[in-house]
Every structure is written in structure tokens, then in C-alpha cells.
Design a protein that fits this description.
Shape of chain A: elongated
Number of strands of chain A: 16
Strand content of chain A: 15-25%
Strand order of the largest sheet of chain A: 1-5-6-11-10-9-7-8
Largest sheet of chain A: 8 strands, mixed
Oligomer: homodimer
């Protein structure tokens, strides 16, 4: 039989076991923090009805959708009935609308699953990737206080992920809208076009952006262009500084006043939630491309790795599920694109291949003693210590080498000498050290060693 | 805008949050046990190349495959290039073949992901479901001892899942093949046909099966048919009984002798692995439909719910990935179809909706005291206690009702009285009890309560 080359499609991140362990630890950390803040788990099917999935999306998204067909449906004409989710927000909207009467509001859910996009293959672009989302959904209304809780969750997650200093950056779409209105740019679409130009500030510089805004396409006055550039360059260095800079914007239309009041309340509460002032700031350039957001918007960046861009983004929206239900469901949420983040962190040398999930390897000296090895392994497992037993014989040196290569730190040797003396020899492959311990003390000793190892990361 | 009805496709199991928590706890238990036995995590993409996925499968599977196409690819003729995995075994074979040189052998992996089958919609049939698999893959060879380790893992998993008494049932394909040969049924396909008839024993009874086997289609003698029926009805009640019944089969061709020797070694070792004799048994009717298995085969049943059928099945195979690589990769493994199992257990009243993952709700008495509530919540979260704060005001009674409905057991009240006295009132909604505790003792007290609650299940 001719062999089929074993390969995966481009745009997926498939990991070797020790990398998968590192990735899994990040997932576990995120889940633990989401749960600590009282978010409840939800999982939805990867496959949804196409008409349910594609109610709101524009052409761009539609072109990236993966449609799904069983063999029987392949021959049919037209758009396939099924498709893979491209984010977790549309499935959330569908979920809340479908199960509305069985949920308690405010509904706090987290969801950590893979999503699918038929992107063109390109370095750093993934066709399948994890999103780790939280959202709080209100019924009819939702206090702006929830907008302050989200950064507290972000802070908790990234502090524990321990990938370096970070800043949660906030803006408010109403404030932006109001400010643009006060400059005579009232049309929402025109505001978006201006923002898209302003987004090029970092890459092209202020002069380029100013020229564009005052050029034929936009036709803004030099004064207005200058004010826009000043506005989007506002950053705060402390809570007091943020309040001062918000006040310095001067009075303006209702949207501006409302946005400013919301931002002030949110910023103040974030501090009350225990987030240090060093970890959140005003950044009036943040718009978040989507029309979707209507109030607070967030981005989070690593201070020492700005090139990575936002590692966690989101915001407040007016109505989650207007395509499915007449109920008004305002909400606020964020998303961590973990596959891309992990890939970038690994690329930047910020995450290592993990230690194995296997704590101990029990070696095999003499196959006649197998029952003794198995009893020892059972004892360790019973104490919650992950243990592998060598069931296939072979030289002891080869067994050590296997443990080393597999990232297993502790190797246990139980030879005739040890059995006679009631002891066990433990080899610590990381410290390149070995010691003898009484059989009765083994579990306790290994537990201490493993706790120390875990504490040291 | 006309509303789109929010709905999922038939054949998926979407859960409400408290059920999702119960499901997630089962996933966590399985993962913990797999890791305890030294299996390493692997995740593979849901989408694979069709030619990679469909090398080995027959027509039946092919008809159940979900093909995947991006919008751009829809117009193209022929079989789509991409498809969703229908199990975790083919992706494992692809993974091991692709990464062979980066893996250590014996390679022990677990994989817990969703798989997809375009089944006809039918009660209890799922189109998307979790499989939780372990496999040990050897290079060139793999000791039969690994066949004994698998039941030790099964025992550990189901004991901790705590869904009632169960029995791991074993057979060996070589033993079966050898016995059939000794009766003059040497052809593999004919053996399978006979086994398929024998499978109807429970439903149709011995007379019906005997009539079929001695009838026109098979044309076996009454003696041979009787021997087959006797063989497949062999069950053991203890290890000694199993050995006795294996010996009683008498001598036979090489395959029978080899199968018997393997079964004896495996059964003996299972006991050495610490599995009580009450939890494993010989069952010579087990064949596992697939041609795939070549030696030991397993099924696991709940003693008190035989109608649920096998909750965990698998076996030994000769060569994992012959379609992708010339390397010989024998292995042994099992799969738990968790979605179906959970659904069946819930149907039989064996799993409850879980307590919430949220341990504590901090109520809101006076919005001016918000900083005090937030500080309290931070303290609890810092101690690992999952805490939700009521950020939207409302009557206290309504807040209690929310907690009750959401399955949150402990509600904390911090009113002016409590603040003045330096205490906190804790309401235990399950016990319908409340008590006052010094603010400084709160974390300790709640921890004890939560540990007790967890211990009592």
C-alpha cells in the first residue's frame, strides 16, 4: 500500500506533549481565575446552523467561514446548512436567546473553546485557535460597575500567567463619539474612517496622518486634525492623572459627558477591585474596530513586548442577541486568543517547554519483582503523585535516559539491596543528585520535593 | 429585522451551566486519573486533510464524515480537501507518524476532545461528542504487560467517577480465533459473521442463535454450534475461576495457546496493579466489532445498569499507523465516549446537576459601601474561594433568591451592623442556616465549610 504523508493543514498549532502541557497550564490558569470571579462554564457545539451563525456578519467574515457538509449533503446546491463557529460571541448570543428562561441574570459565563476561520495561510494567522472569553449579560440593563470588574479579572489572570508586566488600557466609545461630534464629525461611519487613519499613527507618524485628515478625502481643518491627534494621544500615568486628563477635554455634547462619567466611575472602581494603578490606564486611541462596542473598551498590552499587540480585548455592548430575541440583553466581555498568544510568547522566548505532568518514573531492575514495582506505583498514585512504571525491561541507563528525555524529574530505583533494607533510591534528574529514603517516608519526601519544584516554577 | 430562531442542530448535547459544571467535573476526574498513570496530553486539530483521514476507513464511516469547505472552495468539484475527525485514533496515528522522531517510546498519550459524525439524528446518537482516550504506543514491540495497565487506569477512573459498581471484562482475539479454528472455522470473515450472530444471544436467546448457526447460511453442525455457544457464555467470578475456565478450554492451535497465555499474564498482572478481583472478569463473548484489534480486548459495564452497555472499550492492535509510516507501531488503548455516557447517566438518574462553581455571593446592602464589598471579595478570591459580588443593587431577598437559583451555597452579608462590629453574616442556603463570624476568621471558616461540602459530594 502506498503511504499517505502524515500532515496537518497550514494554520493550525499542533504541539508536542511537553509544549501541550505548558499550553494546558495556561488554559487551567485562565479557567481557575474565571471561576474565582464567579463565571460559569458554557460549551457550545463547534457546528452551528449557517443561518444562525451568519445573521449579523458582513462579507469579510462570511468569506472566512468554514462550511460543513455530510457526504449526503455534498451534492446539494446553495449555501450549506451547517458551518463552524468563527468566534464565541455569536454562539453566546444564540445560547442566551435559546436558553433565556433557564438562565439567571446577570448571566456570567466563561467559554474556552476552539474557533475556526478560513483565513489565507500566513505566519501567525491561525485557522483554528482557542478563544477564552468571559461575558456578563444583563436583562434590560446592566450596571456600568460590571465594566470595572472585567479589568479585575484581566489583572488576576495575567498576574498569575506570569508573563511580565502588563497594562490594561481603557477608553469609552461614547466619549470618543461625543468628542468627534464636538469637532463637527457627527456621522458614525465618518468617525470610523477617521479612526482608521488615526490607527496608522504608530506606523506612519503624526505628519502623515495629519496630511491625510486635512487632505482631499477628509477635508478637515488643521485645527480639527490637531485636536483629533491630541485626543488619541492621551495616556494616563495614574488614576489622578486620568481624572485630570478627562476633565481637561472640556465640556461637550451629551455623549461626551456620559462617556466621561462612565470612564471615571469605572476607573475609580477598578482601583477598589484591588487592581494596582500601575496596571491600568486611560488610552484614548483605543477604538476596537467592531461597530459592536458602545461604551467601555479594553485592550491589554505587555509593557516589554508592545509588538505583540493586545493580548486581551473587549468592551461593553448594547444588545447581545437582537437577531434572535426581542429581549434587550446588554453586556460586557473580553476575549483572550490563547493560541496566538501562546505562539507569540513562545516566539519571544517567554514560555518554556513545561516539565512533564509525570512526576515519577519507577524503574524496572528485575522483571520477577514486577509486583513490588506495581505496588509502589499504586501507593504513589494513591497519594496523587503521577507515576509511570517501566513495564518493558531494558538497561537501567536506558530507563534513566528515557525519563530525562521525557522531562520526568524523579526516578525511583527498587533493587534487591533496597528491598532488603526497606528503602528506595530516588534520583533527581534535574539536580543530578540521588538519595536513599525509607520506603515508609517515600510519599512524604516526594510530596515535599514536588511542592518545592512547583513553587519554584 | 425578522428574528432568526436560536437553535442548535439535532445530535448535539448543549448543557445549562450547572449541568456543564457536572460534565466538566467528570472531564477533570478522567484527566486527573490519566495523568496520575503517566499519560501525556495531546490535542490535535478538529479539521484534518480528507486524504489523511480517510485512508483506512470503509464505506460506512465515509458516509458519516463531515467535510469542511471555506467559501472559496465551495464551488470546486470532487471530494472536499478537508474533513472533521470522526474519532481520535486516526489523528493519533497521523500524530505519531508525523512526529515520530520527536516522541519517546513507549509513547503514552491521553486525548480528550470532541469528534464529529454525520449520523442520522436519533435519540442517544450524537453528531458531536467527547472522546477521552488513552493509548500506549510501542516502537517495533510493546510488552503485553501494558495490556494489564489499561484496566488499572479504567478502575481508577470509574472508582473516582463514583457512578456505581462496574466490571472490566476481558477477552483475547487470538484465543477466540484459535478456538474457532479448532472448530474448523478458519476464515476470519466467517468468524466475524458467526460472532455477529452470537451477539444476538441476549436479545434473541440461545435457541434462535443455535438455529441460525446450524441453518442454511452457516451450516454448522449441532456440536460445533453448541461449542460456540458454550464458549461465548464463559464468564469468570474470580481470578482462580478465570484460570480454571481458560484451562478447561483444552489444548488447541497456536493462536489459542498464545491468546490463553496472554490472557493469563494480563489477568494476573491486573491484580498486581491493585485492581480488586470483584472489578475484572473474563468474558469470552467480547469481540469488539473492529478488525483493528488483534489481542486483548476490553469492555466495561455498570453492574446495576447493564442496559447502558459498555462505558469504556478498547484493546490491543498490531500496528497503529501503517497507512502513514513503515515503522511498526503496536499499541493498546481505550476510549470513553463521555458525552453519551453523561447523557445515559443523567437519564438513569445517576448524575445530578452540580453545585455551582461559585462558592460565595457577596450581597449589596448599600451601594456607598461598594469598596468594602469589593475588598471582601478580593480577600476571598485571594484565598482561592470563587466569589461573585452583586454589583447591581436590589432588595436583599432578591439577591438571596438569585444565589439560590444559581446554586450558590454561601451568601455573605456585610451591613452597617456587621461593619461596626467587625463581623460578617454568612447564610448557608443549603442548610438554611446563618451565623456570624469575625471578619478575620471568615476565610478560615468558609474554607472549612467548603472542604466539608466537597468531601460530602
Amino acid at each position: 500500500m502506498a503511504l499517505t504523508p502524515a500532515r496537518t493543514m497550514p494554520g493550525v498549532l499542533e504541539l508536542l506533549p511537553l509544549d501541550q502541557i505548558a499550553f494546558q497550564r495556561m488554559l487551567d490558569t485562565i479557567r481557575r481565575n474565571y471561576e474565582r470571579f464567579g463565571f460559569l462554564p458554557v460549551e457550545t457545539p463547534a457546528i452551528e446552523f449557517s443561518d444562525v451563525l451568519l445573521t449579523k456578519t458582513g462579507g469579510e467574515t462570511e468569506r472566512q467561514v468554514y462550511f460543513v457538509q455530510s457526504t449526503g449533503a455534498l451534492a446539494k446546491e446553495g449555501t450549506p446548512e451547517l458551518a463552524l463557529r468563527f468566534d464565541l460571541t455569536v454562539p453566546l448570543a444564540r445560547y442566551v436567546a435559546e436558553h433565556e428562561h433557564d438562565l439567571s441574570f446577570p448571566f456570567r459565563r466563561y467559554q474556552m473553546q476552539r474557533v475556526y476561520r478560513g483565513e489565507r495561510a500566513q505566519r501567525g494567522r491561525f485557522r483554528e485557535f482557542y478563544q477564552c472569553d468571559i461575558d456578563v449579560i444583563g436583562k434590560d440593563g446592566l450596571s456600568v460597575r460590571y465594566d470595572a470588574e472585567i479589568p479585575a479579572v484581566i489583572y488576576s489572570v495575567f498576574r498569575e500567567l506570569d508573563i511580565g508586566p502588563f497594562t490594561i488600557q481603557l477608553n469609552n466609545r461614547k466619549l470618543m463619539r461625543g468628542y468627534f461630534e464636538s469637532l463637527g464629525i457627527a456621522d458614525g461611519e465618518r468617525q470610523m474612517l477617521v479612526l482608521r487613519e488615526v490607527d496608522k499613527l504608530d506606523k506612519r507618524g503624526a505628519d502623515y496622518v495629519r496630511d491625510t485628515l486635512t487632505g482631499e478625502g477628509f477635508g478637515l481643518s488643521a485645527e480639527v486634525a490637531g485636536k483629533i491627534l491630541d485626543f488619541v494621544q492621551v495616556r494616563s500615568t495614574s488614576l489622578e492623572d486620568a481624572f485630570g486628563k478627562l476633565d481637561a477635554l472640556g465640556s461637550g455634547p451629551e455623549a461626551l459627558e456620559q462617556g466621561r462619567a462612565e470612564l471615571k466611575e469605572v476607573l475609580g472602581l477598578i482601583r477598589d477591585f484591588g487592581v494596582p494603578e500601575s496596571h491600568f490606564a486611560l488610552n484614548l486611541s483605543i477604538a476596537r474596530g467592531l461597530d459592536y462596542y458602545t461604551g467601555t473598551v479594553y485592550e491589554t498590552t505587555l509593557n516589554e513586548h508592545p509588538q505583540i499587540g493586545s493580548i486581551c480585548s473587549g468592551g461593553r455592548y448594547e444588545n447581545l442577541a437582537s437577531q434572535y430575541t426581542k429581549s434587550k440583553l446588554p453586556g460586557v466581555g473580553i476575549s483572550i486568543g490563547l493560541t496566538r498568544l501562546y505562539w507569540q510568547l513562545r516566539d519571544a522566548g517567554l514560555v518554556d517547554t513545561a516539565r512533564s505532568t509525570v512526576d515519577v518514573l519507577v524503574t524496572q531492575m528485575d522483571e520477577a519483582r514486577m509486583p513490588a514495582y506495581l505496588a509502589l506505583a499504586s501507593e504513589l498514585r494513591g497519594a496523587g503523585i503521577a507515576t509511570e512504571v517501566v513495564l518493558e525491561g531494558g538497561k537501567l541507563g536506558k530507563q534513566f535516559k528515557y525519563a530525562d528525555r521525557a522531562g520526568i524529574r524523579f526516578v525511583v530505583v527498587l533493587g534487591e539491596d533496597e528491598l532488603a533494607k526497606g528503602v528506595v533510591t530516588v534520583k533527581d534528574l534535574r539536580r543530578e543528585d540521588q538519595f536513599e529514603v525509607a520506603r515508609t517516608e517515600l510519599v512524604k519526601t516526594l510530596r515535599v520535593e514536588l511542592e518545592q519544584a512547583a513553587a519554584m516554577g
